[in-house]
Amino acid sequence: MRKSFVAAALAGMLVAVAACGGAGSTGSSAPSSGSAPAGGSATSADRDKFVGTWTGKYGCDVKTTIDDKMIVKAGSGSLDLSIAIHANAMNPDTVAGTLTSPTEVNVPEQSMGGVGSTAKLKLTGDTLDFHATAMGMTCGGSAYTRATTATPTQSAAPSATPTSIQTALPSFVGEWQRHGSQAGKPSTERFALNSDGTYSIEASFDKTKAVFASSHGTYESTATTLTMTDQNAKTTISPYHLDKSGRLVIDNKTKSPWTRVH
To answer: How far apart are the first and last CA of the chain?
Structure first.
């Protein structure tokens, strides 16, 4: 386990991911038509087969992929869909698509990660493919599977009222940000440390909001260290503390602290 914090090694791959629909800015939704496709064979029942939460691997080549989640909801028209791409990122884009056949959805050009992109979704049995195209490059993932939610079992007897006092949350839990530059362009890094033991971090250009680096995973902590395991099962251990101004300092980098947002 090596000491480091921001997963800079992901930056090159995520530039391509952002260009092909990476998370970053709030995408503008194209107007929904609600009209039937040319063949007239698709129905709202076909549309509803796409609705749900899907998880899979996303990337711009087979060697560099990230865990991805997509949430698909029914749109206003009978064949329309609202699609939240990269829903596990901090600022996912939501785009509009229309069913063009019983098994395919077309997403006309919209903002995805700050870049105008088009996309297609294809349903094959119980799996979903998603591919986005921008600037001559296609990124995406195959064989997304539908996430399932466990049904809670009802206890025969009422549960006892807990008597223990809830442990206070660590001081670093919350949302943080810091400003810098990437390739000579102003940029902002956002870091969320959630109370459920998960974290996410992303860096985007200030002007275009395009994401050029991103990571997420789980963490454990002591009073002085953070141990984070990312989506690729890579673990880093970093010392941390809050300075006199309440800013979060990671790896003793006092010149680049994080400022609390929430």
So the answer is: 30
